[in-house]
Amino acid sequence: MKHRIVVLGAGYAGATTAGRLAKRLRREDVTITLVNAEPDLVERVRLHQLATGQDLRPRPFSEMFAGTGVELRLAKVTAVDVDAKAVTVTTADGAEELVAYDTLVYALGSGWNDQGVPGTAQHAHEVSSRPGALRLRERLAALEAGGSVVVVGGGLTGLEAATEIAEARPDLDVALADRGTLGDWLSEKGRTHLRKVIDKLGITVHEHTAVAAVESDTIRTTDGTAVPAAVTIWTTGFAVHPLARATTLDVNEQGRIVVDSTMRSVSHPDVYAVGDAALAMGPGDKPLRMSCASGVPMAWQAADTIAARLTGGKLPKGSIRYFQQCISLGRKEGLIQFVTADDQAVDRALTGRMAARYKELICKSAAWGVANPTAGLPSRRRRVERQGTESPARVEAAA
């Protein structure tokens, strides 16, 4: 009987894991099922572009995984029973089906987090999903000149959304509300360049501003100030998919699955988690942040570990570290902030058009990497030694 591997979620992390496993294991020994609600890869790092009216290149999984042996199952995951080793999915026509597994890779990712602020869910827009970006695209297209747009959140997503909109629609009044100081995590060079671009684009910045409520045409700050906002875009962080919290998996207070250095659940050895859904520790014993920069290396680690454990190979020992933070500031400007292994800014940054080209290359390579998960590396498919089992010595060594 073939070993059944089921991957839930086909974002950068989930899709990369499935593709890499297909390159590592023999089709005669395993089945790899990738469950996802959409037939195409969502380039999440480009959703701010989609929101401003730009058309993104379609990246259908049917082409990416053609001839690999990965089976794409178009369905929404509605329940996970890690004790029965089964997943409940609902297809587009409403049919409910059960998918059994021997090894599960949980990669359902994250969505926007309204932080429980009154009115946010009803009145604000998000750019963490394709449907959300398309709704925002429609709303911005209908907004007349002089209309006010407020982006709440001064992190990477907020900066990219605000600058993209201001560049694409110079006729709009774009503002950014930041709880702290603009770019306070960047180096001095990075902060200086960011401020220069923000000023050039005419974006109003409300620093040290916390939002207490969102209304249909206004945001209200905690000090009682009303800021006009015909469109409010909420980018204050991410919340993981709630399904993991409903299982017996060991999760943290945010609902992220606690994993070891191989991305294996600390409570269920047949479950792995990658991407935003996983709580993995990086350099300095700090949690890896929710990002593509974390998710793709996590996918490599999980896929190589699963393959090694099934084939009796050597477990990977590489650690995940950071090198840079890449920020697009519209189509003509960018900022590449170089960082330490544990993601702290150093006194080096690339700015301007060169940085914009660099960021574009990173975005293209992220999508290309999904279809080429072992590029430049040996990809000999190995035979599974034991169907659904691992040697006691190997399990003990990995614990």
- Major sheet: order of its strands? 5-4-3-2-1-6-18
Largest sheet data: 7 strands, mixed
Give the domain tally.
2
* Number of continuous helical runs: 10
Indicate the percent of residues in helices: 25-40%
Organism: Streptomyces davaonensis (strain DSM 101723 / JCM 4913 / KCC S-0913 / 768)
GO molecular function, one term: NAD(P)H dehydrogenase (quinone) activity
GO biological process, one term: aerobic electron transport chain
Keywords: FAD, Flavoprotein, Oxidoreductase
Architecture overview:
The chain has 399 residues and is of the alpha/beta class. The protein folds into two domains: 3-111 and 238-321 and 377-398, 3-Layer(bba) Sandwich (FAD/NAD(P)-binding domain); 115-234, FAD/NAD(P)-binding domain (3-Layer(bba) Sandwich), CATH 3.50.50. 28% of the residues lie in helices and 25% in strands. The chain contains ten helices and 22 strands. The strands form six sheets. The protein has a seven-stranded mixed β-sheet with strand order 5-4-3-2-1-6-18, covered by helices on one side. Strands 8-15-9-10-11 form a five-stranded parallel β-sheet. α1 (12-24) packs across α9. The protein is globular. This is Putative oxidoreductase. Pfam families: Pyr_redox_2 (PF07992). Residues 4-303 form the FAD/NAD(P)-binding domain. InterPro entries: FAD/NAD-bd_sf, FAD/NAD-binding_dom, NADH-Q_oxidoreductase. One of its GO terms (biological process) is aerobic electron transport chain.
